[in-house]
Amino acid sequence: MTTPEPVTDLDPRYSSAIHPRPGAENVTPTPWPEAQRHLEEAEIFWVSTVRDDGRLHVTPVLAAWHDGVLYFSTGPEEQKAKNLAQNAHCALTTGRNSLTEGLDLIVEGTAEHVTDPAKVEEVIAVYEAKYGEHITSPEGTLHGMSDAFRTGRAVVFAVEPDTAYGFGREGGLFSHTRWAF
Questions:
Q1: What is the H or E stretch that residue 123 is in?
Q2: pTM for this structure?
Q3: Phi-psi region of 131 (alpha: psi -120 to 50; beta: other; left: phi over 0)
């Protein structure tokens, strides 16, 4: 399954296209295939969920982009799992900690608990390919994660994007791209 091409817009309010600096007139939206490449390569994401009292909860997670869906996991008793059980809306964020380069991405959507064993195995394969020895080696920091997925000690969630945002910064030029699905 390939992700359908979303509607792509450049928001000039937050892009260099409206600022009088050299090259600003050439700022364009980030193409969706480039954003997908960044989603595939990013190792750490931050998931934002909402507690039952309305307060936000933000925490780092591993995530894998596969077939138009962003997958992440957590322990069934962790705060984010509890939050998603009562409000499945969430956002996953990744990017660079740089003022002048890189692309920050935000994927907003609804987290769905993955319970189908065949889909869990597919996600495991994607995680193992992406994170390699961190997961597959007995000495790996996250060794045992695959078995945790299989046994339910870790809950796997799938987030198909509703909306995504990209904030690009290259050579002093800024872009703010919105993708609607």
A1: helix 117-131
A2: 0.92
A3: alpha
